[in-house]
Amino acid sequence: MKRTFLLSLFAVLLMFTFSACGSSSLVNKAKKLEIGMIKQDVVNIMGNGYTTLAARQTPEGALETIRYENIMEFPYIISFLDGKLVEWYIDEPKTQPPHHHRNGNPHP
After folding, report:
1. What number of other Cβ atoms are within 10 A of residue 46's Cβ?
2. Pair 44, 34: CB distance under 8 Å
3. Alpha helical stretches, state H, 1-68
4. pTM to 2 decimal places
5. Could you list the pLDDT tens digit for every one of the 108 residues in the chain?
6. CA 66, CA 61: separation in Å to the nearest integer?
7. How far does the chain reach from its first CA to its final CA, in angstroms?
8. Residue 54's closest CA among 68, 65, 40?
């Protein structure tokens, strides 16, 4: 009985792992994005699971920045100007050491 439970649990975990790595990855979805798309088209491709990072009025128009992330990939940052896609990129961690002041303390 215990062996059957463990095999079932393993099978479920294996299916979850393969489904997480499938064609629904952020990288594969982002390959379909094109500059100029309206926000709803981007959401249709990338999904509703985003966080709004910023929204403000600029001299060029209304600028909105959103973030998509999952635990298996680096996040994607996506920006819209007046509701149209103007930029997207992978938010990779910084690899440079922090800049130090003359007193040796890093910037806050």
Report:
1. 19
2. no
3. 2-20, 26-30, 39-46
4. 0.66
5. 676 765 665 555 545 544 444 457 999 999 999 999 999 999 999 999 999 999 999 999 999 999 999 988 999 999 999 999 999 999 987 776 666 556 655 555
6. 16
7. 56
8. 65
pLDDT number for residue 24: 75
Domains and CATH numbers, the chain: 25-90 (3.30.1450.10)
The tokens for 15 are 């299916």
Per the CB < 8 A criterion, the answer to whether 50 and 43 are in contact is yes
Residue 39, both tokens = 């926000």
Give the tokens for residue 71: 């635990």
Residue 75 and residue 90: Cα distance in Å, rounded? Answer: 6
Measured CA to CA, the distance from residue 39 to residue 45 in angstroms comes to 10
- Which backbone phi and psi does 56 adopt, to 5 degrees? -155, 160
